[in-house]
């Protein structure tokens, strides 16, 4: 509950709302076109992918730029965010999607639709669930993998990689389900247009895909080993990386030599440098200064 007392937490929630408004507005605007146009699927796929890459780069340092309940639940299961943050992020994402859909509904020509996700002809609900499950699984797996701070081999832009993953999901799933892979994206237009047929597919499929991605990465591909008490502490109290706002304001006013150093901010001398024999840097090794007089680096609690 300590997160509720932090302005950083509320700024992060606001960032999820604002980011979702922009994401849904531009994404669905691209989908309101000629459905018989063969290039429509490519255009929509690129629009959603570019939108998420842009917003991840813009808002990642504030909230992590989840912009998707399936991503948030994956990070919850992976014990990277608290249960409270997951709940507030999901609510902010849903509200942002509804707000953007309502705004777009007022702007578009009356005869145009609103990009409500529906199953294609002859696609059953079970088949739609499977498509949404696997399309979301690859997205959340990508998010968790490229933002794993234990890795030292990730090159290039994490937001771009995630944007391409969103594009891939759309290219595959649009012909079957319209491509949800984001329950909030499906929720907004469905609420405004009051079209809830098979809407459960666009929640259950992506959320199960996000949970499965977290288990696959954390238990099989790159196991984590925090203690049960540590996992419980993160789920209910947040991470150690949550920096008190007052502490940060004091740090900004002080000179570098006077910056406060909480327990989780450390400096190291040359003797603390990890061995070059190790194939990967430890998570500690990614966030340290190696000179005793250096300005301490704050570990970011965010994805990007």
TrEMBL record:
The keyword Acyltransferase appears for this protein: no
GO terms classed as biological process: hyperosmotic response; renal water transport
Keyword DNA-binding among UniProt keywords: no
Gene3D superfamilies given in the database record: Glycerol uptake facilitator protein (1.20.1080.10)
Any Gene Ontology CC annotation: membrane
Membrane topology label: Multi-pass membrane protein
Family as reported in the entry's similarity comment: Belongs to the MIP/aquaporin (TC 1.A.8) family.
Official protein name in the record: Aquaporin 1
Organism name: Mugilogobius chulae
